[in-house]
Amino acid sequence: MQNMKNLCKTLSVIVIISIFTSCASIVSKSRWPLTVKINPSGAKVEITDKNGVVVYNGNTPVIMYLKSGAGFFVKQSYKVKLTLDGYGEKIIPVECMLKITCAQ
User: Mean of the pLDDT values across residues 15-42?
Assistant: First the structure.
């Protein structure tokens, strides 16, 4: 009976340790650079997230660091809208990928 209790305690400790150390890094970096350059430069840039929230409003060229996730294991997506006098408006979808890594 005592051996069974010790075995249960040992197994419990092993399970807890493995849960907290098996995935040292669940998701890679949370922000990644997005470079927007066009020729001619000076175009208006508006970047919105998947909820329609404006995360950047400015001009080209620009390097923005955008969040790759929109929650726990939910990838983020954006729309990059470019406008420049004399040219048509262009909307470019950007979809982030989540990278899951586990250290064993």
Answer: 66
Range in 14-23, 58-67, 84-93 with the lowest mean pLDDT: 14-23
Residue linked to tokens 């996730």: 69
Residue 43 lies in a domain: yes
**CA dihedral defined by 57, 59, 31, 94, rounded to 10 degrees?**
80
Whether residue 79 lies inside any domain: the answer is: yes
* DSSP H helical ranges for the chain: 2-21
Q: What's the structural domain count of the chain?
A: 1
What confidence tens digit (pLDDT) does each residue in 63-79 have? 888 888 776 667 888 99
Distance CA 63, CA 15 (A): 44
Is residue 35 assigned to a domain? yes
Q: Examine residue 20 and state whether it is found in any structural domain, yes or no.
A: no
Within 10 A of 48 (CB to CB), how many other CB atoms are there? 17
